Amino acid sequence: MKMDQALLLIHNELLGTNLTVYWKSELCYQCLFQFLANVSASEDLGRPNIAAVSVNTQHGSILQVNDPSEERGVCRLEYKFGEFGNYSLFVQRTYNETACDILVNENPVDSNLPVSIAFLVGLALILAVFFLRLLLRFDEFNDWISKAINFQETDRLINSELGSPSREDPLSAGCQPETRRPSAMSHRLRCVDTFRGIALIIMVFVNYGGGKYWYFKHSSWNGLTVADLVFPWFVFIMGSSIFLSMTSILQQGCSKFKLLRKIAWRSFLLICIGIVVVNPNYCLGPLSWDKVRIPGVLQRLGVTYFVVAALELLFAKPVPENYALDTCCPSLRDITFSWPQWLLILMLESIWLTLTFFLPVPGCPTGYLGPGGIGDFGKYPRCTGGAAGYIDRLLLGDDHLYQHPSSAVLYLTQVAYDPEGLLGTINSIVMAFLGVQAGKILLYYKGQTKDILTRFAAWCCVLGLISIALTKVSTNEGFIPINKNLWSLSYVTTLSSFAFFIMLILYPVVDVRGLWTGAPFFYPGMNSILVYVGHEVFENYFPFQWKLEDNQSHKEHLVQNIVATALWVFIAYVLYKKKIFWKI
To answer: How many beta carbons lie within 10 A of that of residue 558, not counting itself?
Structure first.
């Protein structure tokens, strides 16, 4: 039996009645039932005919038992099967009524137990480090540690045995010590790099498989999973970094034209690297030019980076000495100080809304936001993504898009659809610009912790209220559902609200109080491009992947993926210590 499956034995105890059983996932919105099994009629009252089938255990299942001769439903029931469990569905007649009952023959395994154990181990390590750091603040504990270890005696023994005259690194012999100068690194906001590292490490973990758990995979269409959180957070924090770094560079006297050339070159490199990363020959075989996938994560980052950076560069102005006295509308100062940028961003969002809801799509209803396939009761099987999918297929061609979208898992879509397509890039730009606003708050209110936290909280609440209005607090029934495949407006406002909340927590904890250094996430956050490209390129190489004893075990996959992710954290740490940073 395969992972995320259970065995179901269907017992037909009805004399002279054949049965056809259909199923659908409870997560599949307005989906057609799919064929599961045929069970012929029982010929003997005491000897039912039995059909054995595999059923999915990731989500609850809805089973429909039909009598094909009369085209009527015999019964319908909902049930959540457990992984590797053994179940029996009895269809029998009782008191002139047909009854359907499910009994457990063999108990399922607790497939979530490895995740729970990993979480508890991680929590224990975090608490241990926290208490150790707390103890190290006490002089008595430091004195006790020093006496116990006896550093001087240890040094004497080492020098005696190895003949080392001093602690100086032999490789640095003859080098003159550098004069210490304040560097830009010392003024970096650690919360920004920490947030970027958190998003990046979760992204690496889910890209490596996330233990093959459904909640570490992208949502099939509407809704959110853990995997859906990280890319927009990365875009958000990229926007914050754009503003902070650009302001610093301009203050050093760099011309706008020279900076624009650097922005364009970096965007071009991101797009080129992205195209290489998403077209691996070792997986797909040698590719022809007419099959190369064009959109991708780095490609979207490149376009988003260029638009937002160029927009901020175009309207860049000196940072006021006293920002609080520099505007006439204190409650809206974050917007009024950047009104030209906001105007253009709102124009871009108007373009997204207009194309999404008013662009005629052949064979599809105007304004369609569904997954196509068997969704919407199978009425629009080739309308996946509505206008977003149509624009990509029209401008890029089916062969240059992602061929295995997440919508194919539940909705059985048959057309290519790219979650990093052209139309969704508009909302990626909006997301990055909201990150720019976070960067402006950090810079303009530097040293005014209360003001910074108040504005983070305000943005978090406002964006959250917009999401509530757009979604009606539902997965599928809102005006604009939360959808990662479409990068819908509600997806952007919801994830931006979460991002401001995370910044609301990280800034005082990491940068103000210094209660947490940001480790270990700070290190990959400082080398994000290298870690992202590296984990994609070396995904199938040892020691990031090895042959498992049981390929159908969540536990083994989880261990492998955690180890692979931890290796990239360690690599980032070593590179940080050696001051090696890959910048493009």
So the answer is: 21
